[in-house]
Hints:
The chain is α/β, with parallel strands linked by helices.
Amino acid sequence: MQHIDIVAVGRVREQYLRDGINEYLKRLQPYARVRILEGPEGKIPEPLNPARVEQILAAEGEGLQRLLRPGAYTIALDREGVMLSSEELAMRLADLALAGRNNLAFVIGGTLGLARDLLEAADLRLSFSRFTFPHQLMRLILLEQLYRAYKIQRGETYHR
């Protein structure tokens, strides 16, 4: 069974998102052990200059880095990353399991994204779209896609 950490900046504030997240965490229990780890979220001042952006990203990145399990296969969610279909994600997860890579970490940045060093250190940079999604909503989208991937792997009907 794979162990998946979702390492994310900040807390989810909206109840409807927390409800959806909890639903998919429950649905994933037969397939993987999933936990959500939350790192600190930097305050974003107005006006925002490039130097301050880098400071915030660096601080958030350090917080996320501390939460990563040593040796985990790290997947950074990044708009500029590779795009996979649901079926390709299912195959990628299965391939990782077959290779003995059962500790995975999906890293979700905050409002400003992820620090460059985290992106560069990731084993995979994964894009869900060229669209920008709110980082709190991204947790729910990721969990749903993980659930879909495991259902696809087992030939179960959810993904149709």
